[in-house]
Target: Peptidase M15A C-terminal domain-containing protein
Amino acid sequence: MSRNDEQMTAHFNRQEFICCCEGRYCDGFPAEMSRELVGRMEAVRMVLGTAIIVTSGVRCPTRNEEVGGIPYSRHLVGAAADCYAPGISVYDLADAAIAAGLGVIVYEYEGFCHVEI
Model:
């Protein structure tokens, strides 16, 4: 099994957090995902009882700039993820994430939450 297939928690695989540049600018993991972040996301998943879909995990600097990320984004160091939970409002996801000790930015109209440690 390659490191990219590593199961980080019961429900999150390392591959889910790969840089969304699709290999154009980096090898997929310019930084490792924070185990604390992923562990807290697992706790949120358990509370909500449904999958959490990661749309952006770790990012390389070039991809971060392309998507409009701030220069010191927590994505750059593997300490943030953008995600949503199918069938769950972004506000319910945000409440569960806050209860799990995560920092949250709600992107209501885009339909996702940014979570970070």
